[in-house]
Amino acid sequence: MTDYNKKRDFNKTKEPRGDGPKKKHEKPIFVIQKHDATNLHYDFRLEIDHTLKSWSVPKGPSTDPSVKRMAIPTEDHPIAYADFEGTIPEGEYGGGTVMIWDNGTIESNKKDENGNIISLEDSFNTGSIEVTLHGKKLQGKFNLVKMKGGKMSGNWLLMKQEDAEADARRNPVSTQPKSVVTGRSLSEIAEAENGNQKKQE
Ligand code: MN
Question: What's the predicted TM-score (pTM) here?
Answer without folding.
Answer: 0.93
